[in-house]
Amino acid sequence: MNKKIAIIGSGNIGLSLAKGLVKADFAQAGDIILTRRNINHLKSFAEAGFVVSNNNNQAVSNADVIILAVLPQQLNAVLDEISSSIDSKKHLVISVISGVSCVAVREKLGDDVEVIRVMPNTAIAIGQSMTCLASDNASDENIISVTKMFETVGSVVKINEDLMTSATALCACGIAFFLRAIRAASQGGVEIGFHADEALKMAVQTAKGAADLLLLHGTHPESEIDKVTSPKGCTIAGLNEMEHNGFSSSLIKGIKLSALKAGNLYTKES
Ligand SMILES: NC(=O)C1=CN([C@@H]2O[C@H](COP(=O)(O)OP(=O)(O)OC[C@H]3O[C@@H](n4cnc5c(N)ncnc54)[C@H](OP(=O)(O)O)[C@@H]3O)[C@@H](O)[C@H]2O)C=CC1
Ligand SMILES: O=C(O)[C@@H]1CCC=N1
């Protein structure tokens, strides 16, 4: 892509995205401007060829695509700061910020600015994000081009904007949920005889195998589970014990709470 990208708020997700786009050859590091207030934390990115800055307005002026990636509670200050530099004819605004509608962004930046909400996860750094995308005013052309952009760093699903907080819980927070499950499995592995490093390696590869079975076979989890659970066997014994202790229920309840929280992260007054 020849367009310049400014990532306003280059923290965990902003930097994961920047790394992923360069790794995927979608952009050159020199075409990505990374901003944050404390640019000392961006030294390694500057050394890798990214443009780093603590001047949001300058970054906006020098870019075509503006990616908002600050925390919800930091957003209003940023929008007030950059609104005068935003040109609706030149700029496409992408927001990865949880719980902030396209309308809320436009209220600060101007009615005619095209805004696309995108919800990636940190696996974007390695081209494995599950990214959800929604907009209420972007042109088909811009939706297609942003879809293509995020498809270079994972899978993309276009959804209705009212499901964006649900997507946040399932996909963005979901990375942490599955990581904790892997960690717990490795701790179980240590209790039954493995050293921590080998237990973790075994748990990680087993989790990857389980996910790949579903992706490559296109099957339902229960159908793959049925192949593991021998009658009177050890798998069904362990699985049922986990369910008696609320395994599925606790995952479902956690996802519901995260979705609720995701919808309440931002207030116009903050
Ligand atoms: N982490 C994740 O997995 C995901 C996060 N999100 C969303 O992305 C957003 C960022 O999350 P995350 O990356 O975790 O948060 P971080 O706190 O890691 O990143 C936010 C960054 O914004 C910078 N920042 C704050 N104020 C300003 C400002 N005025 N101008 C420029 N930069 C600023 C901060 O740096 P400094 O203090 O130096 O300015 C910081 O590096 C959130 O809205 C979150 O909901 C979405 C999907 C996944
Ligand atoms: O925890 C959070 O609020 C952010 C949004 C999704 C992932 N991290």
Automatic annotation (TrEMBL):
- Provide the alphabetized UniProt keywords: Amino-acid biosynthesis, Cytoplasm, NADP, Oxidoreductase, Proline biosynthesis
Listed Pfam families:
F420_oxidored, P5CR_dimer
Q: What is its EC number?
A: 1.5.1.2
**Which Gene Ontology MF annotations are present?**
pyrroline-5-carboxylate reductase activity
Q: Name one GO cellular component term.
A: cytoplasm
Keyword Cytoplasm: yes or no?
yes
Q: What class of enzyme is it?
A: oxidoreductase
The answer to whether UniProt assigns keyword Cytoplasm to this entry is: yes
Pinpoint the Pyrroline-5-carboxylate reductase dimerisation domain residues: 161-262
In which residues is NADP(+) bound?
A69, V70, L71, P72
Q: In which pathway does it act?
A: Amino-acid biosynthesis; L-proline biosynthesis; L-proline from L-glutamate 5-semialdehyde: step 1/1
Q: Where is the Pyrroline-5-carboxylate reductase catalytic N-terminal domain positioned along the sequence? A: 4-98
| A GO biological-process term | L-proline biosynthetic process
Family stated for the protein in its record: Belongs to the pyrroline-5-carboxylate reductase family.
Summarizing the function annotation, the protein's role is: Catalyzes the reduction of 1-pyrroline-5-carboxylate (PCA) to L-proline.
The identity of this protein, by name, is Pyrroline-5-carboxylate reductase
